[in-house]
Design brief:
Blueprint: H1 3-27, H2 35-52, H3 61-69, H4 74-87, E1 91-95, E2 100-102, E3 106-108, E4 113-117, H5 118-122, H6 125-128, H7 166-183, E5 184-188, E6 216-220
Antiparallel strand pairs: 1-4, 2-3, 5-6
Length: about 230
């Protein structure tokens, strides 16, 4: 997207935020709202308005509600997050505000930069356990006794570097994966699956692309060949 396109999106989201706030002010001297639902709805509408414009389909309450509920598919969401954990290659730059000693061994000088490698955080045995080198589809399906440090997963960055479109992007990925899994069988063109490895030549990318082509055969599922497919939101 061009710089002008991004500026337009930012302008639309800014105007939408101001409008939502003024609407609260004009409704009454005191307005009672469900804060979580109001914030979720407002962010959903202003961000999608910046993409779709006047024909924004998310202004239909049924579309908006279905979009928000996609994150309730725990296994697919877990697989997406595990893929990000397993393949993340980005870095998180931090600016040192004052001299800081880490572990009584490392002195970080004020006004310097620290580059945190997401891969190192995602493969820390102390955080993720002895299966850290394995791809576990259920890793992010939350169990009552499961506790993962909030800063350990940086699939979408973290802190000031956190992707502002995290929820939107994750929901779209979950929707696409669900649609593909329901409708098609996907097999390796070679008859067996090989690790395509990663092209790590660009350290600025959050997810490095595959080093080798991933060729697959996509076949409509035979048991559902006569089904009429529609996806309703």
């Amino acid at each position: 997207m061009s710089g002008e396109g991004i500026k337009k999106m930012l302008r639309v989201t800014g105007e939408g935020t101001i409008t939502a706030l003024f609407r609260l002010e004009s409704d009454a001297k005191r307005t009672r709202i469900d804060l979580w639902n109001w914030v979720q709805h407002t962010i959903c509408i202003i961000t999608t308005d910046s993409v779709y414009g006047p024909q924004n389909p998310y202004r239909d309450p049924q579309v908006e509600n279905a979009f928000c509920r996609l994150n309730e598919v725990p296994l697919i969401s877990s697989r997406v997050q595990e893929s990000l954990r397993y393949r993340s290659s980005g870095t998180g730059p931090l600016f040192v505000m004052e001299d800081t000693m880490l572990d009584d061994r490392f002195l970080l000088k004020r006004d310097s930069y620290v580059m945190i490698l997401n891969h190192e955080m995602h493969f820390d045995t102390g955080t993720w356990g002895l299966t850290v080198q394995d791809f576990e589809a259920h890793r992010f399906v939350k169990e009552p006794d499961q506790k993962i440090h909030s800063g350990a997963f940086r699939g979408f960055g973290g802190g000031v570097n956190l992707c502002p479109g995290k929820a939107f992007a994750a929901t779209e990925i979950v929707a696409l994966v669900a649609m593909l899994a329901l409708r098609f069988d996907i097999d390796s063109s070679s008859g067996h699956w090989n690790d395509p490895e990663q092209d790590l030549s660009n350290m600025a990318l959050a997810i490095a692309p595959p080093k080798h082509k991933v060729l697959v055969d996509v076949t409509p599922r035979i048991v559902l060949k006569d089904a009429a497919w529609t996806f309703k939101v």
